[in-house]
Amino acid sequence: MGSPKPRVAILAMEGTNCDEELRVALTALGTRVDVVPIRELDPRETPGSERRRLSEFQAVFLPGGFSGGDYVRAGAILAARLRASIGPELEAFVRSGRVLGGICNGFQVLTELGLLPGRRGGRLGVSEAALVKNDSGHFECRPTFVAWEGGRFPALAGVPAGTRYLFPSAHGEGKLVLEGGAARRAELERSGQVLFRWVAPDGGPATYPWNPNGSEGDVAGLTNPEGNVFGLMPHPERSFYHAQAPDWTRTGTPRGFGDGHRFLSAVVRYACESSGSTGATAPGR
Questions:
Q1: Domain region containing 184
Q2: Which of 104, 124, 115, 151 is nearest to 224 (CA)?
């Protein structure tokens, strides 16, 4: 018998709507994926042995969408429910070194929890960042490019800094604002916590629409100080297969994988290594 498949959770609630695309991608990478409604984690709603626990999983993802309708602020309601229901359990999961990732709305949730940019030790806290309304004033949905900064993210260790990825964007509130402004951003750059920056198709500096929201410094994603919590605004699950690329009819057959596969397969491998699991598979191109 082979090694058991690594277990991955995608947390869902009313309004999340990218869990299925992410489930398909992670399943294709050889993981056992559970889409877990957050009520099943909450001991007040699901008591006793029926309750799910984060410790069951090698990695946990917060998907894109409009959790809680994005009322109050984007991601605020889901963050508040997680904090109130499983706050200590979430802190313990982060301290264990396991991977916690947020995509688009998930990134917004992680900033609301204070896990990004984050504090050492995985503590929840007052938010030090927010994803606010795009400078354009409307929802931006198009192919976009990001470049890996070569920072503190072990999943991409060995990948040359500047490596470019095509990840589609789909958000109305994606402009990263940091408490402390430019000085805080410079601090995060020095500590290697900037995960991705928006870039133009040729890899050069991004201007609108290639920076779709106006985020200062073109920041498109962050990690925590330890590198096991990450968030990014664009959607790697929407470029997992080559057929999802906007130019696939001009560049070859729809078979094979896209840039989302490159990124998510690296994340899954690292999640398995950091948790001691050996069951991961990551199909090649």
A1: 7-275
A2: 115
